[in-house]
Amino acid sequence: MxxxxxxxxxxxxxxxxxxxxxxALDGGxxxxxxxxxxxxxxxxxxxxxxxxxxxxxIVHELVEFHxxxxxxxxxxxxxxxxxxxxxQPDGSVRSTVYALVVTVRPGGxxxxxxxxxxxxxxxxxxxxxxxxxxxxTHDQMF
Amino acid sequence: MxxxxxxxxxxxxxxxxxxxxxxALDGGxxxxxxxxxxxxxxxxxxxxxxxxxxxxxIVHELVEFHxxxxxxxxxxxxxxxxxxxxxQPDGSVRSTVYALVVTVRPGGxxxxxxxxxxxxxxxxxxxxxxxxxxxxTHDQMF
Amino acid sequence: MxxxxxxxxxxxxxxxxxxxxxxALDGGxxxxxxxxxxxxxxxxxxxxxxxxxxxxxIVHELVEFHxxxxxxxxxxxxxxxxxxxxxQPDGSVRSTVYALVVTVRPGGxxxxxxxxxxxxxxxxxxxxxxxxxxxxTHDQMF
Lengths: 142, 142, 142
Known about the structure:
Chain A is an alpha+beta fold. Chain A has helices at residues 8-26, 30-34, 55-66, and strands spanning 37-44, 52-53, 75-87, 93-104, 111-125, 128-138.
């Protein structure tokens, strides 16, 4: 195998997109996170979950999900690694990425779990990157 | 949100700068680390600490800090993730980065703590990247 | 120090090469992993091990190594960080990279060990990237 060369500018844009996107999520800026999806984009944070569709739906899903942390001063950080891109015939880009969730509570050590794989379909144009869909699979569930 | 496109060459230079810089720090090459700052650069490794200013001051701070590891054959590795850049009006670049410190002792498993956010201001020109200032915040202290 | 500027396209290609390569390894696609080496490439996964040489030899080494996981439904993920490149006089590129191995078993939390440093020599041309040699050192063994 020789890995097919990636467009250099595309690779940098996607890395930077993920950096801003995940800092928005971990900062609790859910509308900013939702706005990284296309208007009809879908977000499925685990294979068993119903996908949230559209930006309002994604914000709603995140608000619901984070109720479990009410009264729990938790800081979560989503780490990404090994972004593998595959351009698709329709012009979109499939992106497969490792993810680990780092969870910190006051006085505690970081917990690092779960280990996930993020399966994204990206739409890229001169304006930037948007997510058409995201499915997150968990390594615990195999 | 569409993340503002990043200059591709800038993004690669900053990633590469961090790779060399942190390998220098973890290798105990403090003068090499200090030389990644501007001559008047400031380094504050936690919000409560007094910032070290200037390269000699940064080396001094690192030597002092590492006295805690005397007689302790520890290997530390500073991991970075999600480099988010924001060009500033004065030509500098603000860089916000996740960090985890991996600590290994002989016969032990890696300890991964603390979880931090690195807040850098970078000066970039045709010659390369230099750090004007670095403030590290810790997730435990919120 | 000013880190020598890296060729932007080279840096993106190497990152992308590692992403595909490690997803192949962790997916158990050993022939795909071996094909990321030059025909006479060598792979030494720890300093004490005999290096495997050539693609067939590398596949054999991986099959042997993974026998320890027979009947053990383990998912491993090799994370990389801080890719530092140094072009060599003969046109090859030395690449020094941090690595952590994430190991997940059903119902368990990820174990993150060992912490390693990957020492690669890369051959790069218009076709892509190939590995001439890889030596992995472990932080536990110092």
